[in-house]
Design a protein that fits this description.
Blueprint (H helix, E strand, L loop, with lengths): L2 H17 L5 E3 L1 H8 L3 E6 L4 E6 L5 E6 L7 E5 L4 E4 L2 E4 L9 E6 L4 E6 L2 E10 L9 H13 L1
Antiparallel strand pairs: 1-8, 2-3, 2-10, 3-4, 4-5, 6-7, 7-8, 8-9, 9-10
Amino acid sequence: MTVQRLALSGALMGALLAAAPAKAEEMRATEARTFIAGKHFSYNCFDGTTGNGRIYADGSVAGYIRVGGTGPLKYVVLPTGTLRTSGDRYCASLRGVPFEPCFNIQRTSQISFRGSISGLGFAYCDFVRRGGRGDMHRPTQLRELRASVQED
């Protein structure tokens, strides 16, 4: 093999490796909770749903969602304990849902992860951490603020 062919082969191999997606790292529940809790993330889901929000250490959630990627942006608050660890899994307890969905959480970079419903790998959302505190606040603080505004 000539030096030129060897160099070309090396360059092609390097390009293929650089173009290959990074291997996602599966996170256990406590590791996922540490990586996610208290941080502000934007997200894009397989069905076009988008939004941003924060999952708190107490399992509550506050954020915005645009279902299917169309229509109005809606503010949503889920109560304490909605998200919790169950063994090695990160799961949700949702009123009106007859089962407790659990999630596969894969870190895709230092600031992002993919969450999918266990057993339904096609049903996923990609999350990317946003800088700063943004416009997210503790849900209780928002309720107190709304109540004080309504009283005025």
